[in-house]
Amino acid sequence: QEFVDAYVNYVFQISVHEWYTAFSSGFLKVCGGKVLELFQPPELRAMMVGSSSYSWEELEETAIYKGDYSATHPTVKLFWETFHEFPLEKKKKFLLFLTGSDRIPIYGMASLQIVIQPTASGEEYLPVAHTCYNLLDLPKYSSKEVLCARLTQALDNYEGFSLA
User: What GO molecular function annotation could you give as one example from this UniProt entry (predicted)?
Assistant: First the structure.
């Protein structure tokens, strides 16, 4: 029993002490103080990481449309149809593209509230995201295939000006 206790102490405390101390110091500089006493561990985790409950239908329901776009506009319908067919990782990539984060706010998708607006540019142009406002400039595409190709191209190449 003494050997097992010593081994467990080494693995979980002594061997990681240096790295844990550095992590703890940095974490407490950013998130320290009396505020930590207000939260239970699951609440603190939710504040730091966000929710992991992706409700894509809720994202669609709370979306706001500008200009002549509405939930019934053909381009918007094609967008949501295409979006809902994406696998989870691509949907998360869209969140990162649009909001700057692939995580859901603590209050869920309803608090995200994205805005979709038309652009005067033609369908050869890509969708453009304004991350500060959760705003998507979505050109009027003539088909689902064109929309899917342009959106996929935008999601795959939005970082680093495609120079990597």
Answer: ubiquitin protein ligase activity
Rounded CA separation 126/147 (Å) = 9
What stretches of the chain adopt beta strand conformation (E)?
64-65, 115-118, 128-130, 135-138
- 56-157 falls under which CATH superfamily? Hect, E3 ligase catalytic domain (3.30.2410.10)
- 4, 30, 132, 163: which one is catalytic? 132
Taking the C-alpha atoms of residue 155 and residue 125, their distance in angstroms, rounded to an integer, is 13
Active-site residue, 31 included: no
Domain positions in the chain are 1-38, 56-157
Tens digits of pLDDT across the chain (164 residues) = 999 999 999 999 999 999 999 999 998 888 777 778 888 888 887 777 766 778 899 999 999 999 999 999 999 999 999 999 999 999 999 999 999 888 887 777 888 889 999 998 888 999 999 999 999 999 999 999 999 999 999 999 877 554 44
Kind of pairing between the strands at 128-130 and 135-138: antiparallel
* Beta strand 115-118 pairing with 135-138: parallel
